[in-house]
């Protein structure tokens, strides 16, 4: 699984297209597939080969990478008609960069191992579109240790921080933890900024003051800035964060965790999307908090 081996990459959304491009720049050959071929145009121009189905992309590939919206999409691409499983050879590795349900991931891995003698690594990522573009994503990986070692060149092309966390599904659990930390932190940051505004403080001056102390966080740095500047064009859409928080709720339920903060953050994301802001950046949560606080 090292360049110039050919990889299959399936799912060319904002994240997937950039990750596939970085794999191409690292020297891998690429066979790509997406529901709409138009999103593959730039990759084809750069030398990638279009595949009509996931199975076609898989044939002859050294490894397969997926970056898909949700659990049913991954299941369909793996096991549906024309799916990856039809063309997997024994020993092949599938790296799933999607953020999906941990319990389903464990089941997919078990099924691939039993039916095809193949491996599934779940590797949801953090870092957003900028991290995907720059190849600096954080990869949270679950799955067999030998498959993880074999895929090192793939991870090196897309990520800066790559951590193997345990068996199949472990990466998804860690991604749920990542998202609940971000969502919960956004909630309290935006409440703090609303408090400052109602008390007559300048929000940007307040943000700068807070960045100088123990309240400093990536959310205060980036999400609060976007909120203050009114920059709601999505880096990471609110509707996708809602999906991830639904996954986090499932994870804490499955493991019997007392998680009122997770439940509250998930409900705020439901409210944000239901208020018509699902297509905005997740930092639009600040708009909702301000609105509920009686601020314009």
Automatic annotation (TrEMBL):
- Point out the coiled-coil segments of this chain: none
Q: Which GO terms describe its biological process?
A: organic acid catabolic process
What positions does the domain 3-hydroxyisobutyrate dehydrogenase-like NAD-binding occupy? 169-285
- Residues of the 6-phosphogluconate dehydrogenase NADP-binding domain: 7-166
- Protein keywords: NAD, Oxidoreductase, Signal
Output one GO MF annotation.
NAD binding
**Protein name, entry field:** NAD(P)-dependent oxidoreductase
Taxonomic lineage is: Bacteria, Pseudomonadati, Pseudomonadota, Alphaproteobacteria, Acetobacterales
